[in-house]
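Hey everyone, long-time lurker, first post.

I ran two proteins through the pipeline my lab uses and got sequence/structure pairs for each. Pasting them in order. The first:
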Amino acid sequence: MVSRVVFYGSGPVAAASLEQLSEWCQVEAVITKPQPPHHKQLFPVIKAAERLGLPMHFASNRHELDELMDSLSFESQAAVLIDYGIIVSQAVIDKFPLGIINSHFSLLPEWRGADPISFSILSGQSETGISLMLLVQAMDEGPLLAQATYDLPKDITTPQLTTDLIDLSNRTLEQILPIYLAGQIQPMPQERVARPDHTAASYSRKLSKADSILDSSKPAAQLEREIRAFIEWPRSRTVIAGKDVVVTAARAEASPAEHHPGDIYATANKEIALVCNDGQLVIEKLKPAGKPEMTAAAFLAGNQL
């Protein structure tokens, strides 16, 4: 029997998830945010739903969603929510006898909140994953249906990790959703499912432009993780040779004794080193303002430190 759900989602992750979900599941309807008038390009979820021929309904905020759901009725026993961006009320959750399943991209209760993917990289942890959780009126605290783990490569960036977790989420949903709809899975409190070393909840947050500044008072290893985590936004910025640059690739290593935190110098093999509180960040690639990405050697050929 083919599973049937209503899908809630708005962002790019939601669009990619909807594409995959529709390959094996009957999506009765898509609930998403409306297209703002000043946006010429269709939002990814709207574009995906139109291509798939799926019915769509629109709400801009919690109040509009409540009103919308009052006017609709669905046959689906459950809904799936991914990357939606609107707080869902209990009244909306109660429209579905089996609730709303949220695929959250961390191993809950680790990294509840707005940006679990970036914070998994920033923390330097070796493992993350996805959690299928029933939505409740508290931030990412609902009972779990399943979790799936992912080993983090040391050079992983946020875009690649996002892609991999979308795939992992879809595979896990494909396995778990039919069983849950058939009444063969009992939701479990997060504390009973969590790994022994991750029973305490941790919280992520929305990133801001202030996070983009490379701060040499931090350890070099932390800055290297920031570069990978912030590669799309807010990116990692500093000033080298009087030029505003975005650093796109770097590594952390020990710093020579003759240099001090805050020093920037050209290395013997034509790379750029930023001396940090602990070690140094060796910049391999960067993007000056208004120019394409280049190697540190190419930058040094036209700029003197």
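...and the second, right after it:
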Amino acid sequence: MHPNTIFQFEYSYLSLPEIFYSPVRPSIAIKPEIFLLNQGVCNALAIPNQSHQAIISALFEHNGAEKTRTFAQAYAGHQFGYFTMLGDGRAIIIGEHITTEGERFDIQLKGSGKTPYSRGGDGKASLKAMLREYLISSAMHYLKIPSSQSLAVFSTTEPVYRETMQEGAVLARVMKSHIRIGTFEYARHFGTAYHLRALLQYTINRLYPEIKQSENQALSLIIKVMEQQIALVVSWMRVGFIHGVMNTDNVSISGETFDYGPCAFMNAYKPETVYSSIDTAGRYAFGNQPKIMKWNIARLAEALLPLIHPDSDTAIKIAQDVLDSFDTIWYKKFDEMMLHKIGIDQINAESLALVDELLKLMKMHQLDYTNTFFQLLKSLENDHSLQFETELNPWVEKWRNVLKNSGNPAQARLLMGNNNPAVIPRNHRVEEVLGDAVNGNLQPFEKLLEAMASTYRYDDKFQHFMKPPLCDFESKYQTYCGT
């Protein structure tokens, strides 16, 4: 461990063979300044109160043994179904911070300059893009969804050239681990059995030590990751989140959401909704997310086949048996979640038919996903300030009768309250507050974060953020990988 006044860094990842990383240092030409600091993340990491300059020095100005230990990770991945060699093209891990509770978190600088994996890119990031990741990752935290977190945004005043010239910035990102499905694909395609086994052992020791005694550790890891990712995508769909780039290099083994490029939150319920400018075929549409995750888990299984069983045919059969269980697990978790959104705790044919009917009505009449469920919740609290769409009235009566017959209205309100946010970071509001922030006015940005912090505790003062955009905005809105 290499202590400094703020972070307690270790470098366990460097115990892996050297093909998994490249030593590299941040290369910021202009000295950064803290634009935004996340005090909540500081508290979670048990980072003591320090001056902004001390934080900058700890992350950007290494000395002694730490100087050469910062690194970029190598990995591969299937991007929109096509395999390619990748790696951290604009991100550098500064170290693995160990909290006072013994928890380990990667501290990564994103936008900190070129690496050996930049593939012709400049390795930089814009202030608007890094503020966007800070905002969305914070929102995901408040929505109770596992996610990377943003420790700070640093402005550099370096020019960054994208569609236009923009101000540069660096994000300090925090995750339990940046190991991805693509890391295992990299080991399988560009390494040897030794490299693949080393990565497996390291991953289990770091993230899932409970499976160390398993007879088939590779298979147990696939099962663990599949369960984690199913739970994660169920959480996404609970709040209408569309990741946008569910490539295998963006699927974390730790089960955290990360890479907030072309992501967005759905307004009107439409499973075909896509926001990414490059997803012209709708591969990563809202309703496709579960089957894409199943596809991604299959790629992890392919990478680990040599460690599942020495005979390839046997290994494939064993892995396929696990993959065949995906749908059963998915539908159980998804059905439970959707029933909880309407206050029902028991899965049966009648209750599932009620959910199906509601979703069909919402799609047919283009009803807002978040507001519809929130209105149902408020109606149980005898709050009729938000009126139902008339198209829902017959369904609502049927639903109320089901809840009445269950005999536990308090339980119904609790389930709905825990699963239906009042506020999401709607795309048009996100663009508004980001525009103000890059122009020096952080107040609207902070107001939206405040609304997200109380999204499960409704407050009238945040009604502004509950209004969907006009149809004209929705028809033209897109996000990009560099967003």
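Reply from user beta_strand_b:
Welcome! Quick read of the second one: The longest strand covers residues 149-161. The chain has a mean pLDDT of 92.
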